[in-house]
Amino acid sequence: MSTWQIYLRGFKAYLQLEKSLSGNSVEAYLHDVEKLTQYLDAAGLSLSPDKVEPVHLKGFLKWITELGMTARSQARIISGLRAFYKYLLLENEVKKDPTELLESPKLGRKLPVTLSLHEIDALIGMLDLSTDEGKRNRTMLETLYGCGLRVSELVGLRISCLHFDDGFIRIVGKGDKERLVPVGHTAETEIRHYLHEIRSHVPVKKGSEDILFLNRRGGKLSRVMIFTIIKGLAEKAGIKKSISPHTFRHSFATHLIEGGADLRAVQEMLGHASITTTEIYTHLDRDYLRSNILQFHPRSRG
Which of 19, 51, 72, 174 is catalytic? Predict the structure, then answer.
């Protein structure tokens, strides 16, 4: 029997008798320690518990992170290791606790704020659609949410990038990387209407001829203006969440994933992969991407 096994037997008795833990809790603690022994074996480190140093534990945490373990699961394992070394200190089996300075992964990091479909409808419902500005703003919000765009991508969207016959719009994202985004029925209908009924009557400033969304003076909208529009609508709709244009992007991704969309397809849509115009969608077939996104997006049904 190895040193680890001997200590684990003593640890198990300690948890059962001294701590009066349930069988499930005891097993969970033992599994936490066993994960560390698996790592040490995999790394070719033949170390007894008293020879484990903080550097080995940091390597272990890196290993479980790369395996895709969540911050919550990592925190639970660290808790198990701390209990194990606390027991060894009590038994005088080790002189120092290598888990003492080990930092738990931060669980307090807030998840991005998202809006429900009902809240998105409520926001859009606050627009005054008797004005051209209100109709333009509805088109912008439907495009923001329907295509998961960054605010900079929305204000920079060009008419020449609309490829409705193919069912896509071309987006120039961070670092001038380009990607094709499937466009659903609602966003396409709104954009077509805006182009023919509203934008066509705006006197266009020189240099903004190809920009899709224009301000009243015929120039490109600022990112601040989009923030202001959304903040104002949220106040009117009585939505207390701290929201921004990016909230629509988070909501877009969340609604797709909750609906069952392929994670890789969502990743491509958000532009988190490196895609260029010459090799668009090397990871995913274009038709697959389009059908997968449009199947699960609440606004994509005709």
Answer: 174
Structure tokens at 242: 């701290």
246 labelled catalytic: yes
Q: Using 50, 70 and 90 to split pLDDT, how confident is the model at 289? A: low
Selecting among 150, 199, 255, 297, the annotated active-site residue is 150
Average pLDDT over residues 159-170: 94
Q: What is the pLDDT of residues 233-282, one digit of tens each?
A: 999 999 998 899 988 988 887 787 677 676 567 777 777 643 332 233 33
Report residue 301 as tokens: 């049904």
Annotated catalytic residue 150: yes
Catalytic: 264?
A: no
Return all residues near 212 (Cβ < 8 A) that are at least 6 apart: 157, 158, 159, 162, 191, 195, 199
Catalytic residue among 272, 283, 288, 301: 272
Amino acid identity of residue 9, one-letter, is R
88 contact partners, CB below 8 Å, separation of at least 6? 7, 11, 49, 50, 94
Catalytic residue among 86, 177, 193, 281: 281
pLDDT at 58 over 70: yes
DSSP per-residue letters across 265-294: HHHHHHT-S---GGGTTSSS-HHHHHHHHH
249 catalytically annotated: yes
pTM: 0.59
Q: Are 162 and 211 in contact (CB under 8 A)?
A: no
The residues facing 168 across adjacent strands are 163, 182
Measured distance between the N- and C-terminal CA atoms of the chain, rounded to whole angstroms: 67
Residue 99 CA, distance from chain mean position: 31
